[in-house]
Amino acid sequence: MPTTTDITSRAGRAGKVVLGAGVVVAVLLGVLVVARPTTVSTGPDQVALHYSDGAFTPRRFQDCVSSSSRTWDGPGDKHYAYPSSQRNYVFGEMGDREPVTFVSKDGIEMSVDGVAAFLLNTDCETLRKFHDLIGNRYAAYMDSADGNGSAGWLSMLSVYISRPLETAIDRASQNYTYTELYTDPNVKAQWEQDVLEQMPDLVGRQIDGDEEFFTNFAITLQKPVPPESVKAALVAQQEAVARAKAKEAEAAAQVKAAQAQVEVERAEAAKIAERIKVLGRDGYLKQYAIDKGLNPYQPTTSGLITGP
To answer: Which residues belong to any copy of the Band domain (predicted)?
Structure first.
């Protein structure tokens, strides 16, 4: 018959077995969690970069993931999505930043709303360099598959797009007065083109090396606005010019009317002269009186008999 000591010893060994099995199960579960593969699913306007980053692998670039794709990669690997479609950087009310202010050729401070459109260069090697140099530093990669950018994306654009845009607008504005920019649509269109032509070079200066991380720029600028006091003065000036032009037009119309009247009177005088030639002076006067309803043949006393 087993003694109490034997029973206790057996129970201890069984407990150790159970404990050991539990530890093994826990370790296996931990390994499964750690070893679980990673996945990425890109949208139709996204691409992604794949980096190895597991517990036993160095962090190293692996490959690019094209748009509208789903891939499964090693445990611990990282994926960074970036936009492959046109991006818009809006400046102005409800935009990505406040309006851009600048100074015109004649020293008037103005502000303008608008949109700077561009493409991120998603060539695989170029995008990898962008991520390593810029995107990873600002966490500028997309944080979802719905096409929305991250806070880091906007932070990055405030340096690499916003500052060059300010410089381009300020430089282009030195060629035009505020009245030209505010009132002349042809000048405004040329000013917009001047800004666009400067953007690639100014953006490139922000980047180390010769890589073109941003391409296909397009600029749309709204009508620039001067301060309210200047705008009021300009409106008053325009109203005064309009009134002066109206007076000039009225005076010109009066001159033309007077000239027309003179021509009418000249024609009438020529007509009278011709009638006098035909009827004689007395005949014309008699005919004139008749035409006016008068009787040119008034009675006289020369025909009366006055003698006894």
So the answer is: 74-254
